[in-house]
Design a protein that fits this description.
single chain; 207 residues; mainly alpha; 9% strand
Length: 207
């Protein structure tokens, strides 16, 4: 009998001989070499962390701007400018009814609503935010917009017409504040991220 099996050979079908069919290991086969898919439940915590980063940057920029303006109004307004680097850079308190860097003083109310619209747009965009650089950039924009909007609402001459407190005065340049600086830095970072093809949701595209 053994000699007959040796001559005939082993059966082609392992199941016919009672052997258990070979099973592929988890992750092999058709799934091998494919990128692991990230479920929405796994994405959500990452999105929350980026959202926290956005609001942390915004809160820091807003607080820094608010405290600096309180100090300027209390200590510097109606006083002689303070020289920081000779006449190249001074702290000189002024009230600006226009946009950033003193532009458009006749459109104070319009700039107020523009700032409010920017805040709403950032809040809506934050729901699909999965990129830390974008979170930082939008946080700076949000903090700066909130800083100047606070002046528009609460400072004289009236609600939505308030003049912004500016005090950073480089020689040969317009006087500005820390909120303006945050807005410009945030906008500059967004330009860089867009140029590199990085979207707010974390995807990278090549044009």
């Amino acid at each position: 009998m053994a000699e007959a099996e040796r001559i005939i050979g082993t059966p082609d079908n392992p199941e016919a001989a009672g052997a258990e069919p070979e099973r592929s290991a988890p992750g092999s086969g058709d799934a091998a070499g494919q990128d692991e898919q990230v479920s929405p439940d796994e994405q959500r915590p990452k999105g929350k962390r980026k959202l926290l980063a956005l609001f942390a940057v915004a809160a820091f920029a807003y607080a820094l701007d608010l405290v600096s303006k309180m100090i300027v109004v209390a200590k510097l307004e109606h006083h002689e400018p303070i020289e920081v680097i000779g006449d190249l850079l001074q702290f000189n308190a002024i009230r600006n009814a226009g946009a950033a860097f003193g532009m458009g003083e006749a459109f104070t109310v319009i700039f107020t609503f523009i700032a409010a619209a920017v805040i709403v747009v950032i809040a809506r965009l934050a729901r699909k935010l999965y990129s830390l650089p974008w979170a930082i950039a939008l946080g700076m924009l949000l903090g700066g917009a909130l800083g100047n909007l606070t002046d528009r609402i609460f400072r004289a001459p009236g609600v939505f017409e308030g003049a912004v407190v500016d005090f950073i005065a480089p020689k040969g340049f317009a006087v500005f504040n820390l909120a303006d600086s945050a807005i410009v830095c945030g906008g500059f970072l967004i330009v860089i991220l867009s140029f590199r093809g990085l979207d707010p949701d974390g995807t990278v595209h090549k044009d």
